[in-house]
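Worked example 3 (structure in, sequence out).
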């Protein structure tokens, strides 16, 4: 997503920004679901590629959503494919309990809303998405026999 933001700003505004700036943009105003009434903006500092001089521009959350739309679409499609390959017993649990988002992607605003709309399933975000991944991996390794039962070949 960060690379997509860098490329979008370079292509549209002829402004070169760094990876850290792209990450800040993503985490500050990045959005997976269009909400025109809740438009956010951020000032972006970079180097104008035509003049070589540092420049500041304002960019809004809708532009960032467009910039990362390919990656968001890939996430949605991957979730749908995983659901299609889910064993019936696990699928029943998912319908009852829903999907819990973890990891850095869960921090993207409104990703839960988009997935809820696309899958018609309950979607929740864990309290600490980044820590949950590490804790879940540890729990899975502690219970390797159970993990083997739910792994999709």
């Amino acid at each position: 997503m960060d690379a997509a933001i860098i490329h979008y700003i370079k292509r549209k505004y002829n402004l070169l920004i760094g990876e850290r700036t792209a990450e800040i943009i993503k985490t500050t105003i990045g959005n997976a679901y269009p909400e025109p009434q809740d438009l956010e903006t951020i000032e972006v500092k970079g180097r104008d590629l035509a003049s070589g001089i540092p420049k500041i521009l304002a960019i809004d959350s809708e532009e960032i959503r467009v910039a990362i739309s390919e990656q968001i679409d890939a996430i949605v499609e991957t979730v749908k494919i995983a659901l299609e390959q889910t064993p019936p017993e696990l699928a029943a649990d998912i319908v009852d309990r829903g999907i819990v988002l973890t990891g850095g992607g869960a921090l993207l605003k409104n990703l839960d809303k988009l997935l809820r709309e696309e899958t018609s399933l309950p979607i929740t975000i864990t309290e600490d998405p980044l820590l949950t991944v590490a804790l879940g991996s540890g729990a899975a390794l502690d219970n390797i026999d159970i993990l083997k039962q739910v792994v999709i070949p």
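Notes: The chain has eight helices and five strands. The beta strands are 15-16, 41-48, 54-60, 99-101, 123-125.
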